[in-house]
Write a structure and sequence with these properties.
Elements: E1 2-5, H1 11-24, H2 34-42, E2 49-55, E3 60-71, E4 76-86, H3 95-109, E5 112-116, H4 124-133
Protein name: L-amino acid N-acyltransferase YncA
GO molecular function, one term: N-acetyltransferase activity
Domain N-acetyltransferase: 1-147
């Protein structure tokens, strides 16, 4: 298993994983224009958004996206993990930890003091995983306001 930054050839697999991720989190997913949009944002060297993929010998088995943000309260930067998803067969073998450790190393290089992310309260497996990493949970409500 290898973890690396995403390439153009990975986009179809990433989209399939995004669909599975949305279904896992009981959310909707619209596929239209995704390949073009993801290419523009995930593969653009000037983009702040980074994407890692976990690759077995035969396929992409997971992905993570993350980007640097500014915290007014801390007057400093943090890394925000937007997505981390592994196929069911890829869970529980250390792949998730390896991805998070790579994000952590990248965060240090970017002078970020903390990494933030969220997961649904019903995703107990992920919550246990994040707790084992040493992450702390802060309960907040997440709001969505369409524009």
């Amino acid at each position: 298993m290898k973890i690396r930054f995403a390439e153009e050839k990975d986009l179809s697999s990433i989209i399939e994983l995004c669909k599975a991720h949305a279904q896992y989190e009981r959310s909707s997913f619209k596929e239209e224009n995704k390949k073009e949009l993801l290419s523009e944002h995930l593969l653009n060297p000037d983009s702040n958004i980074k994407c890692l993929v976990a690759e077995s010998d035969t396929e992409i088995i997971g992905y993570a996206t993350f980007f640097k943000q500014f915290s007014t309260w801390d007057a400093g930067y943090y890394m925000y993990v937007d997505c981390l998803f592994l196929t069911e067969n890829a869970r529980g073998n250390g792949t998730g930890k390896q991805i998070m450790e790579l994000i952590r190393a990248h965060s240090k290089e970017e002078d970020c003091s903390v990494i933030q992310w969220q997961t649904p309260s019903f995703n107990t497996g992920a919550i246990k995983f994040y707790t084992r990493l040493g992450a702390e949970s802060k309960n907040k409500e997440r709001f969505f306001w369409k524009v």
